[in-house]
Here is the input.
Amino acid sequence: METIVFFALAVFIAVFSVMTVTTKRIVRSATYLLFVLFGTAGIYFLLGYTFLGSVQIMVYAGGIVVLYVFSILLTSGDNDFAEKLKRSKFLAGLGATLVGAVVVLFILLRHKFVPTTDLEPVELNIKTIGHTLLSSDKYGYVLPFEAISILLLACIIGGLLIARKR
Here is the structure.
């Protein structure tokens, strides 16, 4: 049953990923991205990573997509269409996709995947996860967290400056 759910989620993510980058409407693209992020959270839940799945829904699906939609609607009309892709850009994107596919296939074929049989799941409490995430030691995430928060603040300020009437 888990395999069927995994493949259903994988197809769901793949379909909405393609729809995200191929649609001509920008707001629809952000909506399709929301579905991709929900599918990714579903895979996290399927793997038993409940904390990571919850963070995926709260931070990415909840916060980032709302920020994208807010920025899109603030800077452009809702009938805004993406511009037509030039042939050279299309060929460059296709080439980059093929190079990426070759690299992924090379890694998949060269790597020896050894099944692990003696793994026991380790359940950590929220306090331990919080201390680890906000610690400043080698495995802490204070600096990346602060850098991302400053980047998001700069994006909001930039969107407001662009949308401001002169």
In short: Helices lie at 2-22, 26-47, 50-75, 87-110, 126-133, 142-163.
